[in-house]
Amino acid sequence: MVLSKSLTIFVVVAFSISVSLINNGVEAFHKIYPHLQSVSAVSVSGMHRTGYHFQPPRNWINDPNGPMFYNGVYHLFYQYNPNGSVWGNIVWAHSISKDLINWKALEPAIYPSKPFDKYGCWSGSATILPGKGPVILYTGIIDENQTQVQCYAKPEDPSDPFLRKWVKPDEFNPIVVAGKGVNGSAFRDPTTAWWSKDGHWRILVGSRRKHRGMAYLYRSRDFFKWVRAKHPIHSAKTGMWECPDFYPVSLKGKEGLDTSMVGTNVKHVLKNSLDMTRFEYYTLGTYFMNKDKYIPDNTSEDGWGGLRYDYGNFYASKSFFDPSKNRRILWGWANESDSKDDDIKKGWAGIQAIPRSVWLDSTGRQLVQWPVEELNSLREREVNMNNHKLEKGDHIEVDGITAAQADVEVTFSFTSLDKAEAYDPSWVNAQDLCAQKGSKVEGGVGPFGLLTLASENLEEFTPVFFRIFKAPDKHVVLLCSDARSSSLKSNLYKPPFAGFVDVDLEATKKLSLRSLIDHSVVESFGEGGKTNILSRVYPQLAVTIQAHLFVFNNGTEPITVEKLKAWSMKSADII
Ligand code: DQQ
């Protein structure tokens, strides 16, 4: 008895220590700052505002909600505090676009007004009901203890091309309450519904039972009366699952699929956002509709070390099917990495990452993502660098563009992998490895890559780079986006974000990188979007026209910049 008690204490302590070590430096959410949440900004600081990443003119934003394409218009809703630049007073802000890049803000679509959402309108999704139009499912907060229920809203006038006004009918609302055995204070973020041939709509709702993250499955014939399936569709020991997303991907090609698609030529993706670590992970697997079970493939790790859409600052993501271009698009929120006090001074906090197309890699082992093609319309002045050799210690400026607001695509090549450093099998955590072997530590093949948002004399820079190691049976490729040298300012969260890249180097001896640089964000796509990292950074010197871009090599193996194209980026119209 005594032994089991101390064992319990040990497990709890070990669990909290391990969680705090991987906590991404961000405090858990839904913490209310009563004295700050309605302090409106005296002025809005433009210094680190983005030129083409989505952000409203002022105030706090978090999760993307209910993205959809309907009647020729893209809709983006998002969690928004209309009164201040910390989390609180949450409503669904609403913006519309014809191209996913330029946006026009409308009035908030959903805000507390009913007993079932009096204390907040939290995240959720949109479903377009054939012949009937869109319905939004969202989480309503019913009391000060943050008790959560699922609610629905529909357009007041479905013929309004912009769907400006949304109503929350009293009939059937709330449509789902926690029920027996479900933790009502950890029960939120309904998914887009999918329809099955058995005549039912199905949704998932994120939850937790003790330390186990759960995605509960609900079924409905009419979209209003929902019944919980006996078992969650899936669960894992990772703490609370927020913002689940569940969708099919095609086994071949880049085309996206409607959320209701099933069959032998698809795999399913289950993504969850981990409240404890503020990271997300996904698995690829098989959905057994008859049993309402999802089983991850044995190639997808199902836990803390699982695959991530993004190994940086990217959370509460949500995808939707865009029938106008037959693609699945992924939105993710990139929180600030500065302090709450800085956010209050700035008068704003939070951006959305560039929307990305997402599809299954030809290996079937992971997803691939790429910025939507519409982004290219912002490209203006172009510069090129071709077949430029970088010896050890070289850093060469990519001159002639606005380096603080740019898009860079580069392919690096090398003739030999012989000098690759030996890989120690204990290096399982990419971020720890990047912390140990940063961009300045000399290597064999690499580190090589880009120095983004760099000051002229490199007092500040955010390096995005590859480093290659030799394991007994393969090469291990590390991609880092290291914020440690990004700013002279202290009290910032400056992590050396990193991920491994699943690529066969023997065959190609090439690696490609794309970085979207936008004042306080560097959003990078390694090897065509296999490994992606978004960093938020706050340079003090490398701002506007004082920002520079370099290619560099700090490895002994010479590296060739085979092909580099960089563009100044126009600002998007986000009003
Ligand atoms: N943010 C929302 C929740 C969700 C969390 C509240 C994820 O619904 O679980 O703003 O960032």
As for the CATH topology of the largest domain, it is Tachylectin-2, Chain A
What is the total number of structural domains?
A: 2
Mean pLDDT: 93
Helical element count? 4
The ligands found in this model are: 2,5-dideoxy-2,5-imino-D-mannitol
Residue ranges: pLDDT <50 for 5 or more in a row? Answer: 1-27
Q: Indicate the percent of residues in helices.
A: under 10%
Q: What's the CATH superfamily of the largest domain, by name?
A: Glycosyl hydrolase domain, family 43
Helix and strand composition category:
mainly beta
Report strand %: 35-45%
First-last Cα distance: 63 Å
Name of the CATH class of the largest domain: Mainly Beta
Radius of gyration: 23 Å
* Major sheet size, sense and barrel closure: 7 strands, mixed
The number of strands is 37
Report the oligomer. Answer: single chain
Overall geometry: globular
Architecture per CATH nomenclature, i.e. the level-2 architecture of the largest domain: 5 Propeller
Task: Explain how this protein is built.
The longest helix has 20 residues, at 2-21. The chain is mainly beta. 50% of the residues are buried. Strand 30 (462-470) and strand 31 form a beta hairpin. The N and C termini lie far apart (63 Å). 7% of the residues lie in helices and 43% in strands. The strands form seven sheets. Strands 26, 28, 29, 30, 31, 32 and 36 form a seven-stranded mixed sheet that branches. Strands 9, 10, 11, 12, 13 and 14 form a six-stranded antiparallel sheet that branches. The model is unreliable at 1-27 (pLDDT under 50). It is globular and about 70 Å long. The protein folds into two domains: 8-371, Tachylectin-2, Chain A; 379-569, Exo-inulinase, domain 1 (Jelly Rolls). Bound molecules: 2,5-dideoxy-2,5-imino-D-mannitol. 2,5-dideoxy-2,5-imino-D-mannitol binds at residues 29, 62-63, 79, 90, 122-123, 139, 188-189, 242-243, 273, 315-316.
